[in-house]
Specification:
The structure holds three protein chains of three kinds. Chain B is mainly α. Helices cover 62% and strands 0% of the residues of chain B. Chain C is built from nine helices and two strands; from the N terminus they run H-H-H-H-E-H-H-H-H-H-E. The model of chain C has no long low-confidence stretch (mean pLDDT 77). The chains are: A mainly alpha, B mainly alpha, C mainly alpha.
């Protein structure tokens, strides 16, 4: 069921060590969690979680990662 | 079946904590913290679930129909907002730490021990 | 402590934690069998009393509006925190946005991405406003619609470049939206105090369920929270973007 899928996705998010891969995995996890909340008859929370966990959170991770990579490149130059 | 949501919530806490403890990158650590926070959403929602009930929205059904508990859903909604903002703050902190110390490895960011 | 030692130590402690959590959760009511009196009362009483059909929004903005006030301040404080953390440090300076600088090997944005992004901005903003406005009748509300509106702003960055995004959503406007939203929410709460004697009391006339302009102060609260969240998230996202695109290190002599 969706619960087992949530557990598997959560494990994958943790086990993805590279932040770039983890950002994509976190987006999938947010989406699956939103589906789970929908199955639990909570449409408000599902909407909120999907919007946040699939869009805002991976976006912030990617922006932080871009800034870190940019800093490292500049340091090397 | 009736305890599966609670087991998954406890598992998410465990795996998130494992990620935090064995992390070698601050950004990875922040995302594992977000996973741990999501276990609390799961716990709250699964407490309020009622078998065979529908969502607490009454635009097309009469208010007398059986619906799941709305109070825990309101709590979870607030929880999601707070979790996101805390994660954003932690990411900003990680970026600044990298700028200052040049590394994102938590092991290398440990405070120095006083000599002697 | 070596990583291997730390890992094995954690597996022991984590196993104990997992077992303790399962033991604690076993005392909770069975899944699907909850009998919370407060929730069931609210389900039956919200629609007649407050003329909303979305019980969760009624709980968030009316019955437990005080908690939402705290949540608004958490958002505000987090935005302040992000701004002060990502300020220009002593060893940096603010430069021109780096979209076309030499040495930054950014691939040219494809035409498909630009067109899709531009086409999506309008519907995104519309959906965001719809969700904010209808928060008390259908699932949604201030927070969800606010984040959607913030992503609408970000779509302009994705489909055009940084300067266009700055022109569409100048920093002053975003800050104004956020401050206005938070202050508006507090004013609504104080209005309850002034007009009805109780902090956060719903003091506007309650209409009929199913309409848009009903439920007293709840739609106003939705709009205020939507403004605050849009401003807050757009501000945080633009702070992060600024870090990548415009902050340069000062040349070391």
């Amino acid at each position: 069921m969706v619960l087992v899928l949530v557990a598997v996705c959560g494990t994958c998010v943790v086990l993805a060590r590279d932040p770039l891969r983890q950002a994509v995995m976190a987006s999938v996890y947010g989406l699956v969690l939103g589906i789970l909340f929908f199955v639990f008859q909570a449409p408000d929370v599902a909407l909120s979680q999907t919007v946040v966990g699939a869009v805002a959170l991976p976006l912030m991770i990617l922006l932080a990662l871009a800034k870190v990579r940019f800093d490292e490149e500049e340091r090397r130059r | 079946m009736s305890v599966l949501p609670y087991v998954v919530a406890a598992w998410l806490v465990f795996i998130g904590l494992y990620g935090i403890v064995t992390s070698r990158n601050l950004l990875h650590l922040v995302v594992c913290l977000a996973v741990m926070q999501s276990s609390s959403y799961l716990l709250l929602l699964s407490i309020g679930y009622i078998d065979g009930a529908s969502a607490p929205m009454f635009s097309d059904v009469s208010p007398k129909t059986k619906a799941v508990d709305p109070v825990v859903q309101a709590l979870t909604l607030t929880d999601v907002v707070v979790g996101t903002t805390v994660t954003a703050l932690l990411l900003a902190l990680a970026v600044q730490a990298h700028k200052r110390y040049g590394t994102l490895d938590p092991d290398e960011l440990r405070p120095e021990r006083p000599q002697g | 402590m070596k990583p291997a030692t730390r890992r094995s130590l954690f597996l022991v402690a984590g196993g104990v934690l997992f077992a303790a959590l399962i033991w604690g959760f076993a005392g909770l009511p069975d899944f699907g069998d909850f009998n919370g009196a407060y929730g069931q009362f609210l389900n039956g009483a919200s629609t007649p009393e407050r003329a909303t059909t979305d019980v969760i929004t009624a709980v968030n903005f009316d019955y437990r509006g005080f908690d939402t006030l705290g949540e608004e301040f958490i958002l505000f404080a987090a935005v302040i925190g992000v701004t002060s953390l990502l300020r220009t440090l002593r060893g940096e300076r603010e430069g021109a946005p780096d979209d076309d600088a030499p040495g930054r090997r950014v691939p040219e944005t494809s035409l498909a991405v630009r067109i899709t992004g531009l086409l999506l901005v309008g519907p995104t903003v519309l959906v965001g406003i719809y969700i904010v406005a209808h928060g008390h009748q259908t699932p949604g509300g201030g927070f969800q619609g606010g984040v959607i509106l913030a992503t609408g702003l970000l779509l302009t960055y994705l489909s055009a470049d940084y300067l266009t995004m700055r022109r569409v959503g100048p920093t002053a406007l975003i800050e104004l939206a956020e401050g206005l939203g938070t202050a508006g929410f507090v004013l609504i709460a104080l209005g309850g105090l002034v007009f009805a004697g109780v902090f956060f009391e719903n003091f506007l006339p309650i209409g009929t369920a199913g309409r848009l302009l009903t439920a007293g102060t709840i739609p106003l609260g939705n709009v205020a929270v939507g403004l605050a969240v849009t401003g807050g998230f757009a501000f945080m996202l633009s702070e992060f973007l600024q870090q990548t695109l415009t902050k340069r290190r000062r040349e070391v002599r």
